[in-house]
Amino acid sequence: MYDNYPSFPGFEHICLEDSYVLGITVQPAVLLLKLDLLLPGHPQYRAPLPGERACFRQATVTFSSVRDLHWTGQGVIKPAVDASGTVDFGSVDSLTRDDNNYQLLGDWGEINLQSDTPSLSIGPTPFT
Predict the structure, then answer these.
(1) CB of 63 within 8 A of CB of 104?
(2) What pTM, to 2 d.p., does this model score?
(3) Cα 101 from Cα 67, distance rounded (Å)
(4) Is the pLDDT of residue 40 over 50?
(5) Residue 127 near residue 109, CB atoms below 8 Å
(6) Cα 11 from Cα 15, distance rounded (Å)
């Protein structure tokens, strides 16, 4: 079954394409993406504060029980640094699955992995 991330449980009402990847960590059996996540229509949405252009929240996408992972294109892009000094690696251009096979694409490369369904945690969470 082939589908895109909005159909994953907990990924409704978010926008990965307009969010920022702050970091990617690969550990044995785990892939973590730290994001500055855009939340249009999400239950945790709030009106942007003065100086903000939209409602962004810190978030982590976690792939658990990773059985196989291939990351190509690493190091192709240099991270961007905004006026506040925050570093980002662009966005997640796409996140799709075919059964338990996932593909993530972005300026930071392409990751293909086999894992359980990813989970999304929104809020100030530690990123290790």
Answers:
(1) no
(2) 0.87
(3) 10
(4) yes
(5) no
(6) 9
